[in-house]
Structures are given as C-alpha cells and as structure tokens.
Amino acid sequence: MPTAKFLPSVMKVLPPRYQHSGFSIIEVMLALGMATVVILSVGNTLIANQHVVVGSLVREQALNLARQTLEQVQQVKDQAFGCSVASGQCHKGTQSCTPNPGYTSCWLAQPVDTNGDAVVGPTYHVDSTTMEIKNDGDAVNQFTRTITFASSGDDNVKMVTVDVSWTESGVVRHTTLATEITAWKNL
User: Fold this and answer.
1) In a domain? residue 2
2) Is residue 172 domain-resident?
3) Which end of the chain is more exposed for a tag (fewer CB within 10 A), N or C?
C-alpha cells in the first residue's frame, strides 16, 4: 500500500486551503437528488401542459364539427321540412301542414327524405353525401354528433341543437350548439 503512505505526505506539502478542497460523497448525493427533483418537476409540468394542449385541440375540432353541422342543417332545411302548395293543405308522405295566411309553403313536423317519407328521430344527422337528414347520430372520426329538432310554438320555426361528444381520458365530453331556423314566407 505505497499509495496510502504517499497521500498523507502529499497533503502535508499542499497549502492548508487545498488540503480539504473537493466534494464529499454526501455533497455529491445531495446535488444529484436536488437535480433529480428539479428534472422530474419540469418533466411533469411539460406532460401536464401537453395534455391541456391536446384537450384544447380536440375541443376545437368538436366545436368546428358542431358549427359545420348547423351550416348543413341551414342548407337542407327547406328540402327537409318544406312543403309547397298553391292553396289549402300541403301533403308530403304521411305528413301534412297548412300554410299561414300570406304563405304558399309550410314546414312539416318531422324532416322528410328525398322520397317525401318522414325521418323519425328523436335524433338525426345530415348525410354529407346526399345532404339528407337521417335518423340517429353519426360518427365522425373520434366524435359522435346528433341533431335534435324542437318546435318553438310557431310551425315555421324550429329549434336545432347539435351535440358533439367524444371520450377524453376515459371521460365523455360534450360540445353543444343551438340555433333557430325559420321558414321563408314562400319556398
């Protein structure tokens, strides 16, 4: 063990300020522990931030899908609900309506398909290929959207509600938009 004998003699040669310099193993362990805590805290913050950003993007997609669906309903409202007649009662399939005075058209209680048959709900979707209102909701990517129609007391005004739902972290989320659609005086 010549090395062990050599170290004490070297320590005597060094000035006192250098004899105890350097880090002990405890100081190194404490520094590593603190660095680990800081790194884990920053990592957890970044992961939480990523979940917030992804959740926000998904909610924005759902809101856009709901807006798009309301626009589709606006495009097909007269085709789906409208019934034109010169005078008297208007008939389409099994449904009928009577235009208000001054009107040559009225809206039916239920939407109809291109054959004039009633599409019975309670929930609907707009088929983007045929631009017809169909019964039940539909799935678009990770979202499920449904449309409901409610009467407002005026036969020519309908309350339209679009609900878009999706699952995020095991929890079902919803975005809902609603508007009123109105019949024109004459179709």
Assistant:
1) no
2) yes
3) N
What's the domain count of the chain? 1
What pLDDT shows up at residue 1?
Answer: 46
CA 18 to chain centre: 65
Give the Å distances, CA to CA, from 105 to 49, 73, 155: 54, 19, 11
Which residues of the chain form beta strands (DSSP E)? 82-84, 90-92, 95-97, 105-107, 124-127, 132-135, 138-140, 143-151, 157-168, 171-182
List pLDDT tens digits, range 48-83.
Answer: 888 888 888 889 999 999 999 899 888 888 888 888
Q: What is the pTM of this model?
A: 0.68
Q: Which domain holds residue 161?
A: 42-80+107-182
Task: Tokens for 153, please give them.
Answer: 């007391």
What single-letter amino acid sits at 30? L
Distance CA 158, CA 181 (A): 5
pLDDT at position 163 is 93
Alpha helices, DSSP H only, in 20-103? 25-81
